Amino acid sequence: MFVPPLYREPDASWMLELIRRNPLAMMVSNGTEAEGPFATHLPVIPDPRATGDPAAGLAGTTLLGHMNRANPHWASLKAGATVLLTFTGPHAYVSPTLYEVSPAAPTWNFTAVHARGTIEKLDEGIPDEETLRVVTSTVRDFEERFGTGWDMSESLGYFREIMPAVGAFRFTVSSADAMFKLSQEKTPDIRDRVERSFRASACGRHRATADLMEQLP
């Protein structure tokens, strides 16, 4: 991903926070020449067993995810191959009416993280405890942050029944880029008008973009 210096994140901890807040990733990897590239949307979480300093960057960070084993993308994943995970954060259209100057051009404010790394397939052959750990860790994380605190204990038996259809993986980040394009190229008064316009919107995505514009230098 091409990231102009003006739009780079102020520190690496913002990348991990964007991933945590926007965990539906797109995994992209190469198939055979006949297959072409594969792209699959899937939920991803930081490995709760991993330790490290988020401010030190994403390199070396481990993420956990899973997909349907019937997906041809799963069969195409080879150990050691480079895979790309992309995460999209808050984003919103910027109308030139907010600039109050002419001529002008519209744009789109957006935030994104691209992480490259390698995949380790878990429980290859007979899915069991490692796959279940990934699924339950994902449920626990999402229920705590996005759900209503659902107790999965009565459904663990059902989880075990469907585990053979689930392909779980560990993703180790080798490098990452982040783009936080939030009107940094504009004068303070214009940037303030853009932020206030987003904050007044009925759209939660616009308001989340305004929050980031306020938080970032």
Offer a concise description of the structure.
The protein has helices spanning 13-21, 72-76, 129-145, 156-162, 188-199, 204-215; strands at residues 24-30, 37-46, 62-68, 82-94, 107-121, 166-181.
Task: Characterise the protein shown here.
The two termini are 22 Å apart. This protein is of the alpha+beta class and 217 residues long. The protein is built from 6 helices and 6 strands, in the order αβββαββααβαα. It has one domain (5-185): Pnp Oxidase, Chain A, CATH 2.30.110. The chain has a 6-stranded antiparallel barrel.
How far apart the termini lie comes to 22 Å
Q: What are the segments in which pLDDT stays under 50 over at least 5 consecutive residues?
A: none
Number of helices: 6
Number of individual domains = 1
The CATH superfamily is identified as Electron Transport, Fmn-binding Protein, Chain A
Briefly note the CATH topology name: Pnp Oxidase, Chain A
